[in-house]
Amino acid sequence: MGKLTVGALRVVLVALLAGSVFVQAVLVPLIAADLRGSDGDLASRGVRVVVIVLLGFVAAEVVMVCVWRLVTMMRRGTVFSHASFRYVDVVTGAFVAAALLVFALGAVLAPGEAVAPGVVLLVGGVGVAVLGVALIVLVLRMLLAQAVARDVEAHRMRAELDEVI
Q1: 18-48: per-residue pLDDT in tens?
Q2: How far is CA 53 from the centre of its chain?
Q3: DSSP codes joined into one string, 5-63
Q4: CB 26: neighbour CB atoms within 10 A?
Q5: Average pLDDT, whole number, for the chain?
Q6: What is d(CA 27, CA 49) in angstroms, rounded to the nearest whole number?
Q7: pTM of the prediction?
Q8: Residue 53 · residue 23 · CB < 8 Å
């Protein structure tokens, strides 16, 4: 990755993190106030919805921080090491947690007449999509494991060649 690509990615990550903190600090309390002010079934489930949304943003922030760390490791040339697995595993766990939160949101919204069944079905579809992203990250982790193994093997072979020469 070039410096321009890394810089652009970091700008995007900072913007996303700032936006996420803004949503948590400003918009989520406004949503909570709106849910409290509404009447009917949705008002009674407002606290659970707000907690699920907040935890979803935390999961997204965890992913962004781990991606930042992986990009830093890539720039230093240390991404093909066992230390990078920790961040990839955290990203996978965060996506699984986010999928579970989306499914929980669907379960909270499902009972009653406040939310249409089609919307609950769409929320379930989003949960499946987020779980799919977790599986993609898991496959990428396997590719990283192969790359690390090849890198270790290449270093071993270079060391043997240096001894011969």
Answers
A1: 999 999 899 888 888 887 777 666 667 778 8
A2: 14
A3: HHHHHHHHHHHHHHHHHHIIIIIHHHHHHHHHHS-SHHHHTHHHHHHHHHHHHHHHHHH
A4: 10
A5: 89
A6: 13
A7: 0.84
A8: no
